[in-house]
Amino acid sequence: MKQHTFSLQKARLRHTYRTRLQPDESICCFTPAYIENAYQWLIHQRRHYPDNADVWDLRFHWPQVWERILSAVNSGSYILSPLQIIRKATGETLALWSSSDALVLKMLTGVLETQLPVHPQCDHVRGNGGGRKSVLRTDRHLREQRAPFVFRTDIKSYYATIDKSRLYDQLCRHVSHPVLRNLLWQFLHYSVEQGGKFHTPRRGISRGSALILLLAAFHLYAVDSNFEKQQPLVRYARYMVDFLILAPTRWSLRLAGRDLKRLMAEYGFTLHPDKTQLGYTARGFDWMGLWFTQAGMQAIAPAPETNTVNALFRAATHAMLRWARKQGVEVGISCALHTYGRQLNQHPHVHVSVTLNK
Question: Is residue 109 within 8 Å of 125, Cβ to Cβ?
């Protein structure tokens, strides 16, 4: 019964958007170049997927199916499938788009990148510098400007609490083509299937797609624009949903913090209490996994330092295990962490010892 209801809803959706297409609006949104670029991206992203993953079936039949997918997308008849719950070997579960859906969403991202505005203050967007530039800008500001006060925060459960209607209305102000609106509506109102049961969340959007980074930047464009007007009085930076405000006076910091809380309330978001810091830069703060003080960047932040060390161990052991598999041997591995070099400078690195079992 649930399967029948879901199919009926999809059929209604297909009919609705087919009837909305006008003759002058039926110009192709996607060219063969879009689907080829998305296909190469998909191959790279899912190159390590297990043998029974659907990406290998798509790759095997690609010469026969790519034109059919492209035609369905351009005609507005393509329907996104429900996300599937996948359990990894570690026990972790994740909701995954099918390979063809991931391909279409990547194509959609490529088109929307030229239509949706993203603010230069949003550092995670391609072309805005990324995390490295954000770190360097923050370090330079602290060294060259007087900024004794800091407000550092994060949005609690950002993707799970996004208002679908508000985001879709925002998108429609910049996207007019019905084919693009159709795909965006389906993406926002996604369903998840697990064991034959279907669930459509009332709020929030799916995180596992190429489109998510663009929407994360676009959705809070008004917030970025608001703080652009306050510069150079305060230094504002955003990376995804992480916010950093540096201010020369306590009063200017309070005003900026009040504005940010007001804007978050308008969107229906709340700031994460465990990731919010308000105080003096001299006491230090975490930004992009690094530790800053009033004198600039100092070291790896205390919390990410543990994650960095764990990543070192994983990278070293995985490299040895890959080598062992190629050689057809079993090995035992022991690792030792060294945190300082011979000159007593901080230099975390891992020494690996291997025992061979022929």
Answer: no
**Residue 165 is encoded by which pair of tokens?**
């209607």
What is the chain's percent helix, strand, coil content, to nearest 5?
A: 50, 20, 30
- pTM of the shown model: 0.78
Torsion angle of the four alpha carbons 318, 319, 322, 324, in this order, in degrees rounded to the nearest 10: -110
Of 152, 88, 151, 122, nearest in space to 220 by CA = 122
Determine contact, residues 155/272, Cβ cutoff 8 Å. yes
pLDDT digits (tens, 9 = 90+) for 183-217: 999 999 999 998 889 999 999 999 889 999 999 99
Which DSSP string corresponds to 205-245?
---SSTHHHHHHHHHTHHHHHHHHTTTTTSEEEEETTEEEE
Question: What does the DSSP assignment read for 119-141?
Answer: -TTBTTSTTS-HHHHHHHHHHHH
Q: Please compute the mean of the pLDDT values over residues 294-319 and round it to a whole number.
A: 78
The candidate with the shortest Cα–Cα distance to 271, out of 291, 292, 242, is 242
Provide the terminal-to-terminal Cα distance of the chain, rounded to the nearest Å: 57
Residues composing the chain: 358
CA angle 154, 156, 159 (to 5 degrees): 105
Average pLDDT over residues 260-284: 93
Q: What is the pLDDT of residue 339?
A: 72
Contact assessment for residue 212 and residue 223, using Cβ atoms and an 8 Å cutoff: no
222-249, pLDDT tens digit by residue? 999 999 888 878 999 999 999 999 999 9
| CA 152, 157, 161, 167 torsion-angle sign | positive
Contact 297, 287 (CB under 8 A): no
% of the chain with per-residue pLDDT over 90: 60
